[in-house]
Write a structure and sequence with these properties.
201 residues; alpha/beta; 34% helix; globular
């Protein structure tokens, strides 16, 4: 694993790649593990973007944030979660983006549902999508928007919990949770990590 220093997010140096982690197909679309997909879908919808298939193995949408704003590349890997790293690395190479301008949006077991946390680097907490990404990039120093889904109830295995749909109670506030995570991505791009942390933590 590389330990080289990665600079701060800087949209003036080139595009920002925002990746929503998840599993492909209708079977997984509404599950907790796919909240990353839900957040980038919200960002695409806000900006009236359609998804296009990219040769890197992902669905991609490109736009500028606001009038004359930062260029954003949204992506949803077409692979299963544990193979997310390969298409992410390929997209970074294609768009000539460094890991400092990568934002990964993912589900987070260790954070309560309806809670957002942002950070750069750190461990993967057993998340296979993050493990694959760190391995493929040779660094853990990329930005993460950690979208809380909470711990499984009782003795349910985390692997089963993340692949189940949200509960009826959670579904009542899920749209607001997704909306807030999308807001966090926009603030992260426009104002940087510290400002975004101060606003959403």
């Amino acid at each position: 694993m590389s330990t080289h220093t990665v600079g701060p997010l800087d949209p003036t140096t080139g595009p920002v790649l925002v990746v929503g982690l998840g599993n492909p197909g209708d079977r997984y679309a509404a599950t907790r593990h796919n909240i990353g997909h839900m957040v980038v879908n919200e960002l695409a919808e806000r900006n009236s973007q359609r998804w296009n298939t990219h040769k890197a193995g992902a669905a991609v949408a490109e736009f500028r944030l606001g009038i004359g704003g930062s260029k954003i590349v949204l992506a949803k890997p077409a692979t299963y979660m544990n193979l997310s790293g390969k298409p992410i690395a390929a997209l970074l190479k294609f768009f000539k983006i460094g890991p400092e301008n990568l934002i990964v949006v993912h589900d987070e077991l260790d954070i309560e549902f309806d809670t957002i946390r942002l950070k750069r680097g750190g461990g993967e907490g057993g998340h296979n999508g993050l493990k694959s990404t760190s391995q493929a990039l040779g660094t853990k120093e990329y930005l993460r928007v950690r979208t809380g889904i909470g711990r499984p109830p009782g003795r349910m295995a985390p692997a089963d919990y993340v692949l189940r749909p949200f509960s009826t109670t959670e579904l009542e506030t899920l749209p607001m949770h997704i909306d807030r995570a999308a807001d966090a991505v926009e603030v992260l791009v426009e104002d940087g990590l510290t400002t975004a942390q101060n606003r959403f933590h």
